[in-house]
């Protein structure tokens, strides 16, 4: 049980380190056999096969993820370990299995950390170069915080301010053009309090008004920084095209209720 837990923990660590979602499903759905019904005598056999197939696909994907870290495990030995375990003929004692997995977990964590640090450094350098080139384009401005922006359409009325709720349509990409979010594709604008998002957005949206459109190139320190989030790597420079559809001001505090007239005055008013 401890070994199974350790393997699960190890797989989770690798998935997080590589920003890859854990799933027993294969990246591409395998084509079913021509007559899958004939291959199984009952549902128990079919379920057992499905469990094995899912485990096999998961382990295959895990091996590929480890190769990204520079660790190449022997697939034949992995299969042999599974077969020997089922036959109760393991070449390693429980203690040896535990010690080996502990050492392997350390190797994976070390390799994952080294890869993250290298990727973060690469992202920082590439982002800096991208921002330098973008800054040369016509009508691009750079704020004191390092935010780069280009106003395509200024809009009309007042600009939003902290406390306001804004409604926007937007597309977000990495500097290589890889899209990570798009409200146009979802068919639904996003609504949020202006100060409730990354600093680059809070600052950038204040530069346009309702109906305006702006391109934002946001350095990592105004986005997700040195850690990143799912789908956005560490030290990533982000590119957004944003349309400000609406601005909703916070409700004003209720005004004090007027004094009620006394009974005599009310009666007089009715007459």
From TrEMBL:
Gene Ontology MF terms in the entry: peptidyl-prolyl cis-trans isomerase activity
InterPro entries to which the protein is assigned, alphabetical: PPIase_dom_sf, PPIase_FKBP_dom, PPIase_FKBP_N, PPIase_FKBP_N_sf
Signal peptide extent: 1-25
Class of the enzyme per the UniProt entry, highest EC level: isomerase
GO BP, sorted A to Z: protein folding
Catalytic activity entry: [protein]-peptidylproline (omega=180) = [protein]-peptidylproline (omega=0)
Enzyme Commission numbers on file: 5.2.1.8
Recorded GO CC terms: periplasmic space
Primary role: PPIases accelerate the folding of proteins. It catalyzes the cis-trans isomerization of proline imidic peptide bonds in oligopeptides.
Family: Belongs to the FKBP-type PPIase family.
Protein name: Peptidyl-prolyl cis-trans isomerase
